[in-house]
Give the backbone structure.
Amino acid sequence: MPTFFEKKQVVTPGELLAEGDYLAGENTYMEEKKIYASRIGLADLDNKRVNVVALRAFYVPKVGDIVIGTVKEVGFNGWTVDIKAPYTALLRASDVLSRPFKPQNDELSQVLNAGDLIVAKIASYDRAHDPQLTVGEPGLGKITRGQIMQVTPTKIPRVIGRKGSMISMIKQETGCQIILGLNGVILITGKSPEYEELAMMAIKKIEEESHTSGLTDRITQLLKEEKAKLEEK
Amino acid sequence: MNEKPEKLIDKKGCRLDGRKADELRPLKLEVGVLANADGSAYIEHGKNKILAAVFGPREMHPKHLSLPDRMVIRCRYHMAPFSVQERKSPAPSRREVELSKVIRESLEPSLFVELYPRTGIDLFIEVLQADGGTRCASITAASLAIADAGIPMRDLVAACAAGKVDDTVVVDLFDLEDKLGVADVPLALMPNLNAVTLLQMDGILTPEEFEQAVNMAMEGCKKIYAMQKEALKNKYMAIKEEVEEE
């Protein structure tokens, strides 16, 4: 029952990772009791499960995920929303209005118009149907201020850090409010654009160097330096 | 080299470009060269220069082309007008349409098409300079571009040709050998799974020669595969080293 990788080793698609009594985890697949990688990433063994933390991937909707999307089109009884996934999401009018929707009374484009950004949760999704969104919870809905940035969706856990250490550090250092969409879109709202830029720079750096170690310390130091510069001005 | 040479292989067993029978042309691979595509790769294989770009998976347009149970792969192999000595019309030729299909079908087994129903990926292959064996070089580059786009795959696909020139079976034919030679056998391989995804033959070979050609092409694919892996890792290793030096 051997494994064929060292911890955190960069593996390419098709690389044999383990043989025998192991489970195929994320970004891997099993064929004839052998586990191979299916994406470029860092291999890791978690108990009996072989995982690959992908360096490049796209977002696949999952029920319960918080995502940030752009309204693409206003339809007859809802909106279509671009959530940076292979599928466009649907948002029903009755969900936003939280009362029965009557086409003769309500003008949908006055509630949400094409180009508006929203924070939403995936309510339902399966192979045969496009994802449905809901905004019926606190913290969800139309975005009115702040800045948006996009990172590779697989890097979101790295931005959060172990037990949220990274994200809470960035929030604390910059004083910004940050909402992470699991589809890789991030909303940053701060006191002033300068602090928002600061948080964006830090996240950009995390994305680029996500597969290196000691990242939290480097980012903390970077943020402290940049903040000092900013406050001198 | 416009005149037809008398012999394609000299007495010492050297080919026109100085290679031995089992030697590949110099290969250079680069991943992630285009900013606007989801994934991209560039290959220089001898004098071949080819760019590959991938978009998706995304919703299919027009929508009626999407399939309810699987992802659709669309592929466009195209040669730039300046890629050959005589200007080539930029309109897709019969040959290009056929190669697009051949390349698509040789990459399809490497993808988990059943995972993303109703979507499609678009694959664009642009030949900037051609010197024989462009279909193989295109497959090699396209496979890297797909991996760079983060699309899950069973294995990288490496491709290499073998064939017969004069009386010798050789690997990785260039343009002149391809045109004046006896036979050409392009082959695409998923080396880790040992699965052949493309095998064609143009010309006449005896069964023994054919077997020898296939084996040589497979050896070539394995060498190319090693370079593919390295190119893919390089993109991320560069950052890692940079950080560790600080």
